[in-house]
Amino acid sequence: MEGNNVQISVEGVGAELVPVEPDKNTAGIVAKTLLDLSKKECGLTMKIKKGIRPGSGLGSSAASAAAAALAINEALNLNLSRRELIKFAAQGETASAGVPHADNVSSALLGFFTVVKSYDPLEVIQLPSPNNVEFVIAMPDVVVSTSLARSVLPKRVKLSDLARNVGHAAAFIVGIALNDVDLMGESMTDSIIEPARAHLIPGLAEVKKSAIEAGAAGVTISGAGPSILALVNAQRKKTDDVAKAMRNAFEKQGMDSQIICAKPGPGARIARREQL
């Protein structure tokens, strides 16, 4: 494409919900930022194939931003490291969240578990995953917009709730370091965000209860919701049992749901044509 224009087309799951204007698309913002950085006199044409439904709480916008950063870095020979790409991918999140943030794009680019230690300067810590960690994601047939999910968050929090959340976050990291999946699951308790968003997800309490009874180590809202994420110790429990319990719990609430069973992965990669 001539000039410095960015052109976007979108297909796949929920494509109709994704804007194609570069300034309103997470991948588009990343593309324009990296194109400016490159100083190259060229345009970019991007084809986005969505595999994650927008508004599901599974990092759909971050997936597009991270993929764009990795692909454009390769296409324009920018030679930026993945950690350097995080800050550009984070800029893309402005399109969906209103502000740049790195919590989802860092995981998408680096893989496994990541912790954003600071933003100025940007420091991200990557942690390996215990081998026996598996996830069950139950995505109900309802859309919760990111703007709505953010609007219900409390403006003030109790010091006791903050202390409890910080303690659980620290314990979760300890669980990763000790390869203790049960400790990780026990630490997936939120005293601030989840109670505020619970009313947006019909059947949340029932699905969580069913997952725990089926053997999940811990359960929480995934991102802004409405997806619900269960952590499973695969050495002790069957992921399929937890998946069935979560699906049945939603059905009892009169709701269909999509179930995804997954493991932590190594992050985004360039797929060569011969690999496709």
Q: Which labels suit this protein?
A:
276 residues, alpha+beta, Ribosomal Protein S5, domain 2, Alpha-Beta Plaits, 4-stranded antiparallel beta sheet, two-stranded parallel sheet, globular
Number of strands: 8
The total of helices stands at: 11
- Per CATH, the superfamily of the largest domain is GHMP kinase, C-terminal domain
Q: What is the CATH architecture assignment of the largest domain?
A: 2-Layer Sandwich
Separation, N- and C-terminal Cα atoms: 25 Å
Largest sheet: 4 strands, antiparallel
Average pLDDT reading: 93
- Rounded to an integer in angstroms, the radius of gyration calculated over CA atoms is 19 Å
CATH fold group of the largest domain: Alpha-Beta Plaits
Number of domains: 2
Would you identify the regions where 5 or more consecutive residues have pLDDT less than 50? none
Describe the global form. globular
Secondary structure: helix percent? 40-55%
How do the strands of the widest beta sheet line up side by side? Answer: 6-7-5-8
Oligomer: single chain
CATH class of the largest domain: Alpha Beta
